[in-house]
């Protein structure tokens, strides 16, 4: 019985992989056919001064130190 379950698992995995490949192929085909398809980033990257990022890191380090002491 255990051998059978291993075989069925392998078969299921094989089917799943085939399904994923066909989905991938289909999406690639659709993208090729859609001439104006282009992926634009939804949000512009947020530019922050590095000092503010460093400050957040410093504060987080302090928090972690307090937690380890407590």
From TrEMBL:
UniProt-annotated stretches for the region Disordered: 1-21
Protein name as annotated: TPX2 C-terminal domain-containing protein
């Amino acid at each position: 019985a255990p051998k059978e379950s291993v075989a069925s698992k392998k078969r299921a995995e094989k089917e799943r992989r085939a399904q994923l490949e066909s989905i991938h192929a289909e999406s690639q085909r659709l993208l090729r056919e859609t001439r104006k398809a282009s992926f634009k980033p939804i949000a512009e990257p947020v530019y922050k001064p590095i000092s503010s990022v460093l400050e957040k890191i410093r504060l987080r380090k302090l928090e972690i130190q307090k937690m380890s002491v407590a």
